[in-house]
## 1
Amino acid sequence: MASERISILDGKRILLGVTGSIACYKSADLASKLVQAGASVNVILTDAAQQFITPLTFQAVTGHVTYTSMWHTDSSGGLPTHIAHVGLSENADMLVIAPATAQHIAKLANGFADDLICLTALNCRCPILVAPAMDGNMYDHPATVENIRKLQERGIIVIEPDEGRFASGLVGRGRLPEVPTLIGHIRHHMGREWGGLRDRHVLVTAGGTREAIDPVRYVTNRSSGKQGYAVAQAALDAGATVTLISTPTGLPVPINATAIIVESAQEMLDAVLEHSNAADALIMAAAVADYRPLNVADQKIKKTDDVLTLDLTRTPDILQTVGQQRKQTGQPYVLVGFAAETQDLLKNAKSKLRRKNVDYIIANDVTRDGAGFQADTNIVTIVGADGNTLSLPQQTKSAVAEVIIQRIAARLQTIPHRQRK
Ligand code: PMT
């Protein structure tokens, strides 16, 4: 995921502080992935970090000089001033300290200014993310707990470390999270700063529902969940609070989304109704079964007859139910459905748009190569309730998701402030 450009990181200036921990090896990959995502990355290494990794490593992956001394006075690195800690902080959209040792967390919590990372952090007015890395006993120590609390009270974002095996051989909580997790936090907090959905709650559904036949079998469809998860990630990148209601897909839940895992259309309906009145937008990317077995066998059905007939009955239409309800409640303000069609794409999409009372239908002709189920790309036409349509060329599901999220953000802009939660 991180080897492609990420819009919310593209062109952003990230200052990466690296302190002395064996987890420094992950920081080189983090710097590299941020650069690949489109960010410009400046790195500060402490003396202790240089015991584990060299300035040249970061210089090679970022294309910028690596800063190692608070006495550095050279503006040739493109900083706005030759005083390093001022130039670096003025130049940054975000300061990320990863790994952050117990020592550096203590120094930051107490306002120390005796190395370039601490000095720069004091001068920073941009968001600061701190990713602790240390052995479990150190992380749990009351002194560290207190220092982390102090940082959080000042608005510094502290990323919870992972649990697992340390270099010491012991097991506990204190491991620096893997790079995709760190990037997930960075992009979400960038979105919180600059995204178009900063104070919004977005509900997304994804995956194909499973309708039980008996305790071991179910009826489902070909949805992988990729499009819905991409929508959830795009909403996070725009700074939204995201609840993702999904069937089991095997896809990683986007960092900072709250995932609710459901199986059937009925379970999805219940979960959607529980959250939709508090949501600013609902995007139904899930492929919800239209029919389910009328009777679910208590025991595994035995292979007796040559032909087995299943009676099917209609499932609830989730989107239509929410579309009807919001005529009374007014929420969600924006309602988006998808239409998976194999014929008469626009005619069917427009009919669903009216019937389900939604603002946009994202119509995909699922018979086309590179579109619809399971593919990494999609080809969609956005049909608006205002009669406007926008046909998009084949592009990644992430890119499609971004366009949808931009539409939603623009629409929410038009909602008068008094109506907002
Ligand atoms: O998951 P992927 O592999 O990435 O594939 C993406 C996708 C093809 C599943 C996705 O892009 C898509 O088209 N999702 C909607 C599939 C679908 O159920 O389409 P539909 O035309 O049957 O339904 C129209 C809308 O009503 C959809 O928003 C659907 O979520 C909703 N619906 C449908 C039936 C039902 N009982 N309740 C619903 O809410």
Note: The CA atoms of residues 334 and 384 lie 11 Å apart.
## 2
Amino acid sequence: MLSIVWIILLSSTLCHGLDNGLAKTPPMGWLSWERFRCNTDCINDPDNCISEQLFQTMTDIVVADGYASVGYEYINVDDCWLEKHRSHDGKLVADRKRFPNGIKALSDYIHSRGLKFGIYEDYGNYTCAGYPGIIGYEEKDALQFAEWNVDYVKLDGCYALPFDMDRGYSTFGRLLNITGKSMVYSCSWPVYQIYAGIQPNYSAIQTHCNLWRNYDDIQDSWASVENIIDYYGNNQDLIAPNAGPGHWNDPDMLIIGNFGLSYEQAKTQFAIWSILAAPLLMSVDLRTIRPQFKHILQNRKIIAVDQDPLGIQGRRIYKHKGIEIWSRPIGPLYQNFYSYAIAFVNRRTDGTPSDISVTLKELGLINYSGYRVEDLYENVDYGVLYPNTKIKVKVNPSGVVMLKGEVQFPVDL
Ligand code: GLA
């Protein structure tokens, strides 16, 4: 009987996409993977192992140190939270030693601090680190997540067949939906298909997922960040149009404040991620982050670019001899003239800042009433500039200058 009800429910939602009303702007929060990986050794490394204590501590810091007040709201568990086997009745069980109070208690803790709770699973037989996956248990697991009051599900794609993903990911999205508990749905569907030589069906993906990974895992290095920046620039015609309110490309976590990025490089990652309308998921030890990196992560002006309600993903509009210019249309709008966020990136390594000089017109800013231009890192206000005005910026090696040009209305209006 129950399964008949389930089938009826399923078919009644078959024609609809995700439409869960969530992630109207890219999700912001904290995610364990890049920094804390699959450290399960709570005996020798109790402060850094994947455990309820780690997530509680990060929750406390997100609230106490001002991250929540600039928009970071999800505390997301990644891989390695599970026991290696399901319970005798087929349920997912959190590792009993590392999560002694169970997932519902962690979820309650995070909610009691005013934040939201995310969890990780995998569409295949196993998660990437070898814990039980959801295949064969999709309904059970969707209901379990709802019972745990999960707000965000990242569904990875290891140990699964990429050809099955069109069906599998969309089905699980529907199963999440019909639990009645709204959950942001983060998919790894395209990236595994691309690796398998399949051209992803992005129009299907964007109707079923709130965000999706297109490319490699980020690692703790500038080379990795550059590699990701190049991927999103080189493939922007295919990728950028799929982003919009409720559905986003995910270039992976922010590694700002870890070991691999200099201050300049960290600023570049934050600037480009905001141009890409990327989810802002910090993966860093918030207990020990240096103030200068915290400052980057809490830059409200750049966060506002990322969170721009129009939700248009930006693009690389210039690339020559190590200099790149990235541009994103944002609000406010005057008639059909957008405002813009512009990132000037210096990929050169020749030790001295590079000058870039360009007219607003060359950047596509052609409204005759002009643009109020300000620097989003340096708090410099250039005043109102016009399409023929030439602006000159000095960009440090592997660094960025980020400007916003806010469209001006004609004075007689
Ligand atoms: C994959 C994902 C990562 C992370 C790991 C966990 O590699 O892309 O983001 O979730 O699995 O094992």
Note: The chain has 13 helices and 16 strands.
## 3
Amino acid sequence: MKERIHKDVVIIGAGMAGLTAALYCGRMNLDTLVLENAIIGGQIANATDIENFPGLASVSGKDLISALQRQTESFGAVIDEFDEIERVTLKTSPKIVETQEKIYEADAVIIASGMNRRKIPLAEGRKFETRGVHYCELCDGHAYAGKIVAVMGGGNAAVDAANFLTKYAEKIYLIHRSELRADEVSQKRLFANKKITVMLQTEIKALRGDKRLEEIEIFDKVSGVTKVIAVDGIFVNIGVEPNTKLFSDELTLSASGRIVAGEDCRTEIAGVFAAGDVREKEIRQLTTAASDGTTAALLAEKYLSKLHG
Ligand code: NAP
């Protein structure tokens, strides 16, 4: 039988929004648990150069998140990154968050589950997942020391991934179906690195290999030529999708799959808040994620004060 544990607040997701919420909740002496089953830091975990976080001229995602994690934990919030959530029940009191190992009874829940990487739109993608097809450079990049890898995509995440992988791989192909939309600073670094070959207007048509990925078939849309190149791995960076599958039975989702909640982060269920990129809103930045985390935590505390009379 799973152990049942009571918490004042359970925060789902340890990106900028979730960690900021945890920092505030911890500081208000709330018994706070953060559950994260991907990587602490979320989308910015491996961003190389963040230059638009107020007060910091330039900081890596890793350094920013490590500092925030230390600050959060110093105020007593606990982060568990190994216990995956299986289901949630939000309309009851207390709310239930059931993981593989435990059942948490929470008086308030802050959902800050962010976004997941979009999967490669090829049937073979699944077959090679973790055997050559990857969605996390920070987690898996080290396995490609001295090897040849491809990065698929043309946004900031793809360009940052290619730049990051130069730490390990001997050769990197950045393969993108159209033009790059990453910012200028990251592109400059990309084109300056001799390990990287940039292939634009190029589609990835097939992945091949026996037990693991060995080669990819690519199509140059300008010349009309199809080629096969040998790679040991591919890191897919073709955008993100909201991580809301767990909540779709209980909360209203927008057309883009995000949780509908106002600027106050309150959802339609009392005591349940949505913060950061998972909330339907127009501007999604690190600063607005931190802002959401702050708002959700302060209003969760207000909700708990009322609840406990
Ligand atoms: P993104 O900016 O939405 O870019 C997605 C990329 O994937 C585009 O190049 C798009 O190509 C391509 N793509 C989409 N669907 C595809 C498909 N089916 N097949 C092939 N290519 C496909 O996503 P992102 O780069 O993951 O970044 C997500 C968010 O995080 C963005 O807001 C980004 O700015 C932010 N971010 C920022 C930083 C930073 O500031 N350093 C770092 C990482 C992420 P098309 O252009 O052809 O549509």
Note: The chain is about 25% helix and 30% strand.
